[in-house]
Amino acid sequence: MDKALIVIAEDDVDDRFLVKAAFDESGYTDTLVFVENGVELTDLLQKKLKEGNMPHLILLDLNMPKKDGREALREIKQDPAFCKIPVIIFSTTNNIQEIARCYETGANSYITKPNSFEQLINILSTVRNYWIEINSSAI
């Protein structure tokens, strides 16, 4: 797949900048759409459903205002229109109970945000390649 639609739900402006920079640095031409909270995420998904242009992947932060990532994950995975979209939790939270709850709710993967930009590039590249290139046929 040449160009994927990837939604990043992240309220921190610096983290959004770093994610965009990591994708750019990797040379991907994917369409990145950023939302700042779970309300914007679910609204965007409804809009994309009407357009017939569903995201190929969602990177979801847990700690956001209005509707946090936990609530958004639950809603996405319970909705037949959205439940097959891979949702990768991308959070600073590394609590084992939190990670287990996310998997129980339907998260496809859970990644703790790295400390360096180099690690971020490697992680996002791996996630993108797996969920877009390798696993896209399973969606």
From TrEMBL:
<feature type="modified residue" description="4-aspartylphosphate">
    <location>
        <position position="61"/>
    </location>
</feature>
<dbReference type="Pfam" id="PF00072">
    <property type="entry name" value="Response_reg"/>
</dbReference>
<protein>
    <submittedName>
        <fullName>Response regulator</fullName>
    </submittedName>
</protein>
<keyword id="KW-0597">Phosphoprotein</keyword>
<dbReference type="InterPro" id="IPR001789">
    <property type="entry name" value="Sig_transdc_resp-reg_receiver"/>
</dbReference>
<dbReference type="InterPro" id="IPR052893">
    <property type="entry name" value="TCS_response_regulator"/>
</dbReference>
<dbReference type="InterPro" id="IPR011006">
    <property type="entry name" value="CheY-like_superfamily"/>
</dbReference>
<feature type="domain" description="Response regulatory">
    <location>
        <begin position="5"/>
        <end position="128"/>
    </location>
</feature>
